Each structure stands twice: as structure tokens, then as C-alpha cells.
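Justification of computing resources. Each target in the renewal requires a structure prediction run like the one illustrated here; the chain below, 91 residues long, is used simply to show the kind of job we budget for.
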Amino acid sequence: MAASLKIPLSQVYGAATFYNHFTMKPQGEHACIVCTGTACYIKGAPELLKSVAAAEGVKPGETTADGRVSLLTARCFGACGLAPVVVIDGM
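Resulting C-alpha cells:
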């Protein structure tokens, strides 16, 4: 990718690791993203994250062994009035 863009690999890596929609490893068939922004955190995001992690047997940032579900976090979805927010498969 870096060679075709004619930029240093470090810049590609920097962009890929900065934005939460880019990942460095394959994701599961389904993505469960829990918002950990301030409003969501105060309104129960840590408990939601623990519950999903326990139910699926993974830690945040991991994918189940069968490749079915990835448990991810995001800093903010911009829906603070609905806190806590979880997005599953983009919905």
C-alpha cells in the first residue's frame, strides 16, 4: 500500500492505527462496538463491555475463536443522549 501511494510505511501504519474503522487483524463476521466516551462510560458502558466479553468469551479488541464476533470499542458515536450506545454490524 505504501509503495503504491509513494509514502512511507510509517504514515500508512499511523493512519491505520489512528482510525477505529481500520484494523490490523481480521475481524469477525459480526462486529459489536461499545462506545466508551464520557457519557456512555458514566451511564454503564464498562458493565456492557464486561457482559458482552463474558458472554462471548473474548476481551475488547479480540475476535471469538470461531470468527463469529469481534468485540470492539470506540471513543464516541456522537449519540450521547442515547448513552450507553452499542453498535452491532453498523446498526
